[in-house]
Design brief:
Helix content is 14%, strand content 28%. The chain is of the alpha+beta class and 455 residues long. A hairpin with a 7-residue loop joins strand 7 and strand 8. The longest helix is centred in the first third of the chain and has 15 residues.
């Protein structure tokens, strides 16, 4: 896990900036690297020395495959075979390109956990407007005092040339996921023997700038709106969560409300943050485990360790196949690893350590964030004793028809209890992600929750 010389120099620069109380954007000369030696959103454009990571050449075209009537994408790499498979028996051979969490999974499930490794494809890009705004952000966006918010920020990727760990994390939090989307997804929390029941959600993400009634002349501190309605099982159906995710979280913390269908009441929900319990998660995830990591970063100190090459889940079209049943995916201990695809990619390694005097069930987190998308790919979670507790893996895919990188499935493994949570499956649902969904600001008010919760 060695940092390069340039990254060590970056770290020294960061410390000097922080000690001076300065949170600076990069110079125009440095920003000029975007689209030249760097990709438009900040990854290294060149491949690696041995050719196992190719050069980025623009990502997949929008017609890279077909889209079926339900919105599911065909797999552009369906004919490829694994280069090799990592198992508990040969994991030592590849340990320099595996996370501690992945190695722990091989130790915990030596007979069943496996990682099929395929050729690397740098498939992702984003729309031209996002690229334009990323260039603006590079020379204009700054962290507010304390680093818990942004100023002079547009759309996504505030720090495409990051100087510290907190800037990398803000890139993940604000990364492009389509301007507005509605999705039907399921969540499973299997017992150690593999038995499970499903919770069904209808989620909506709408970034403020994508609202039908967006007014650029109307100031607002909202980054995006999130609404989540439980549609099944019956005992939970109709419950709705509403979140206003704020941009400057010093000025105004996240706002959240819950509508309880049984009581027919809307209440403020301050517990929907940090290590508050995740919705219907059976205690297997915190609120800030959703989307791999979300929310205010103020309880941790963030350190940029460096960049490295790792085998991470990628181009997970096989796992998203609409011909699959959920029972094909959910197995004892972990998801069906035969349906997964891993590729070698460069990632940013960031460590979060709980600040003295702050409280969170995770005392330390190690983040491994894909350079091409700013999505967290792997996160290791440690308890207060320093024991590795939970291992998060994000199986991502690129929605090439809409130019949106996102997750197919998020898995969070509790390696101590032998249980896990799988969130995001939609194989059996009537519709995949709807990126044409539009909403108004009035759809995301507490008063609108009661109507959203009608069963």
């Amino acid at each position: 896990m060695k940092a390069t010389k340039s990254l060590l120099q970056t770290g020294a620069l960061t410390l000097s900036l922080l000690s001076a109380g300065v949170m600076a954007a990069v110079s125009p000369e440095e920003a000029a690297k975007l689209g030249t030696v760097l990709t438009p959103i900040g990854a290294e454009k060149a491949g690696n020395a041995d050719g196992t990571i190719p050069e980025w050449t623009g990502g997949l075209p929008t017609n890279a495959g077909s889209v079926d009537a339900r919105g599911f994408l065909s797999d552009p790499f369906a004919n490829e075979k694994p280069l090799f498979v990592i198992t508990a028996q040969n994991a030592e051979q590849y340990k320099d390109k595996l996370t501690p969490g992945q190695l722990a999974m091989f130790k915990r499930y030596p007979e069943t956990y496996r990682m099929p490794v395929y050729p690397t494809h740098r498939s992702a890009t984003v729309p031209a407007k996002v690229i334009e705004d990323t260039k603006y952000n590079a020379v204009n966006t700054k962290l507010v005092q304390g680093g818990n918010g942004l100023e002079n920020f547009r759309t996504a990727n505030p720090f495409p040339i990051p100087k510290d760990g907190l800037e990398v994390i803000w890139n993940h939090i604000t990364r492009y996921r389509g301007g507005s989307v509605r999705r039907l997804v399921t969540q499973a929390t299997p017992q150690p023997n593999g038995s499970y029941s499903l919770v069904y959600f209808q989620d909506e993400f709408t970034f403020r700038t994508s609202l039908k009634d967006y007014d650029p002349n109307k100031p607002s501190n909202v980054l995006f709106y999130f609404k989540q309605r439980v549609t099944a099982p019956a005992r939970l159906a109709g419950n709705v969560l509403l979140v206003h995710e704020t941009l400057d979280q010093v000025k105004e913390p996240r706002l959240a409300w819950l509508y309880n269908a049984g009581q027919r009441r809307v209440r403020r929900a301050p517990q929907v943050s940090y290590d508050g319990p995740g919705t219907a998660a059976d205690g297997l995830r915190t609120s800030d485990n959703f989307d791999m990591y979300n929310g205010a970063p103020d309880r941790y100190d963030w350190q940029l360790i460096g960049k490295q090459e790792l085998y991470i889940p990628y181009n997970s079209y096989k796992l998203d196949d609409p011909k699959l049943k959920y029972s094909d995916i959910i197995k004892a201990g972990h998801i069906n690893q035969d349906l997964t695809r891993y590729e070698l990619h460069r990632v940013w390694h960031v460590t979060a350590t709980l600040k003295p005097g702050e409280r969170h069930i995770y005392a330390k987190r190690d983040f491994f964030i894909d350079e091409d998308t700013w999505q967290a790919a792997e996160i290791d979670h440690y308890d207060g004793r320093g024991t590795l507790w939970r291992v998060a893996e994000a199986h991502s895919q690129y929605y090439y028809d809409k130019q949106v990188p996102w997750y197919t499935l998020e898995a969070l493994y509790d390696i101590l209890s032998g249980r896990y949570l799988a969130l995001g499956m939609k194989n059996e649902e009537k519709q995949a992600y709807d990126f044409n969904y539009t909403a108004s600001e009035s759809d995301y008010t507490p008063a609108a929750l009661r109507q959203a919760g009608v069963r």
